[in-house]
Amino acid sequence: MTLIIRSSIACALATALALTPAVATAQQSGRSVAKSNPTPASLGIHGFSVVLVVGSMQGPASEADGVPDTAKKALTDMRGFLPYKRYQLLDAAWMLCCGSDRSGISGRVRGPNDQDYTYSVDPISVADAKLNVRFSMRELRENVAQPAAQGRLSDEARLEHSRQFYEAIRERDEAAVLARTTKQRFDVGLVAAPEKEAAELRHKRAAQRVEDLQHLVGTRFSASPGRNIMDSTFSITPGETVVVGTSRLHGDQALIAILTAAAKPGVAR
Question: How far is CA 43 from the centre of its chain?
Fold first, then answer.
């Protein structure tokens, strides 16, 4: 279910005079292109906040355990569309973006029963002072087999290896999402080749780091993306918070994703 709210001197001089109209036209064209291609940053957006909550039909009406005020208000505004009485915060993530182009963001949040989800927020275009974005979220399934070789490590070394290993896995997964979304934007002309190559290089290095840690003690790791639980395109303004969508869980519960476009200080909301 998806919900969207809201030579000589003479020759040189002659040449310069001849080129002046062309230069002026090019400069005007450049300004025109710049004006016709605004970015999230030009709107005053400097980051996104993703909040994941679980909604339940049981419990006191309007209860929202640990949910940030902005997300709570968005849920209240949607009470006519959402049947849930109680909301509980599961996880939240904050990432900067949009420094000079339509760079998207990706990350990972944790839901019920330690289930991880990867998300991506991809700016598409700017129109009427609003940013059109695509938000998607998928399950992440991981399986790690601990070999006998790790049993020969000291407790401290094993814990340190596990910490580095899981950090490397997280970085690899985030880099994979970024590489994929950057290539999608490159294919439609929204980003230049160097940015796509940089994202691919980051993913390659992150994947190599995971392999290096695997080989260190023979750890076997497998991860596969699960089902896509949310995929929605909508518009958002600086400072606005949107209830992106819901995904039904077991019983009377549902996952709900809430997105805020953080505005730079001083930007009118």
Answer: 18
How far is the C-alpha of 106 from the C-alpha of 119, rounded, in Å? Answer: 6
Laid out side by side, the sheet with 86-96 consists of: 63-65, 86-96, 45-56, 253-263, 241-248
Rounded to two decimals, what is the model's pTM? 0.59
| pLDDT tens readout for residues 43-76 | 888 889 999 999 998 776 667 788 999 999 999 8
Hey, how many other C-beta atoms are within 10 angstroms of the C-beta on 159?
Answer: 11
Of 132, 129, 135, nearest in space to 44 by CA: 129
Give the strands of the sheet with 105-110, arranged side by side: 105-110, 116-127, 130-145, 220-236
Domains and CATH numbers, the chain: 1-6+36-143+225-269 (no CATH), 147-218 (1.10.287)
CA distances from residue 258 to 34, 73, 231 in whole angstroms, order as listed: 31, 11, 13
At position 239, the amino acid (one-letter code) is G
Confirm if 40 and 131 have CB atoms less than 8 A apart.
Answer: yes
